[in-house]
Amino acid sequence: MHGLAKWTWALAATMIGQTLAGPIASKHGPIRVHPGGPRDIVVTKDDTLNGTFIGGTVKVDGLLQSASAAGTGQLPLAIVNNMAGSTDGQINCYVAGQDTSGNVVLLASDGTWYYPPGTTSGVPVVIDADLALPLGAEGSTTTITLPDYIVSGRVYIADGTLQFFVVTNGAGGAALVQPSPVNPSDPNAAVNWGFVELTNTADGGLYANISYVDFVGIILGMSLLGTDGSTQTALGLGADAVAQICAALVSQTASDGYPWSSLCMTDSSGNYLRALAPYDFIADNNGDAFSDYFTDYINSVWSTFSSSPLTVDTQTDAGEVACTTGGSDTLTCGNDNRGYAQPSAGDIFGCNTGPFALQSGDNAVHYAVVPRLCAAFNRGTLLLSGGDVQPGLPATDYYTTAPSNYYSKFVHDNEVDGKGYAFSYDDVNPAGENESGTVSSPIAQTLTITVGGPSS
């Protein structure tokens, strides 16, 4: 889901990121945003979408046709505005993704797909098109229909106006540059925004999720109505969740001295805009942050499972596998093609680097152990009674001991129904539990998105 491996288009952009990193991180306090221009954008793979840029046309059976001639797969989005005090047109919706041919698309204000032009520019170029879809005032519902199937889509909601850009991807193509939650100099940094992720295809149907893996911004929830009348919900966070999460993170810094409070971003008046996940803070602001946070815990885990086994339930045909360190620096699991070195804090928070990085050739057991082991570290359950079986403990035991991923804890504390990813493998749970915040159906009729908290 993330990785944040950067490539930059100019030394200036790199230096901007480096200049911000040290002083901000050393304060152990919320980061105040200061929006810039295109040259202040730091391009990361998480904030870009690659595809074919064909400037308003699409190939069908080898012939260029207008974009409106392509396919079917319309999906109504009913967007409920619960933002307190919001007026007509204050809240805007944007949709970005790929069509089923891999072309990058955005939803234009006239309800058709807009195909942004490509570019060879190394500096992001703003997309000059009418992409804002304004919502009605507080209490209203606005229906927006996606004109066709969409892959890797995002439905953005913003209290204000967002800008999108295109930039060369350095490999002979172009990329769509989307708003960045982690860069305090991003042109969109002062806007309160967030998104719902979705993919809707003819073969797979609709899959949508609320993800807090990277950050928490504007408050969103959703429900999915199927053509058979069935309903699935992921209610999201409470209306004041960002302020509550940031207050808890500030308190946690006061308690243990780690830079949890620096995960929060504020506007020029000091109002909280968003909270970043710790992995994103480490990767984008301070590589040394939290560096020793898990050290003692990791050593205790390695010692505990030196001779007595850690049992990992793969929840697949492979069943349960026994893992031990045997007094070495490597945790080895039965039938796994390779072992696990001791992870760093960044490895644990991100779940996709170090021992948790998946490689081509890894077998099914390895693919099953990685998410379950990383989830256990984030939730601090490995040394609890019953923690020698993963996953095994209920959600009530998650984050009950230090060290834990307190960002994830505070996010879940503020979720109305406990659903919504707060780290990459938050869908790892014992059978019968689901904390992932996903909805999916092959017979989707309407996806409803609530803005500003659940409807009363």
UniProtKB/TrEMBL annotation:
Residue ranges occupied by any GH64 domain in the UniProt entry: 72-449
InterPro entries cross-referenced by the UniProt entry: Glyco_hydro_64, Glyco_hydro_64_fam, Glyco_hydro_64_N_2, Osmotin/thaumatin-like_sf
Keyword Oxidoreductase attached: no
Gene3D superfamilies the UniProt entry points to: Beta-1,3-glucanase, C-terminal domain, Thaumatin
Keyword Repeat applies: no
Signal peptide boundaries: 1-21
Alphabetical UniProt keywords: Signal
Protein name: GH64 domain-containing protein
Species assigned in the record: Talaromyces rugulosus
Lineage, uppermost ranks: Eukaryota, Fungi, Dikarya, Ascomycota, Pezizomycotina
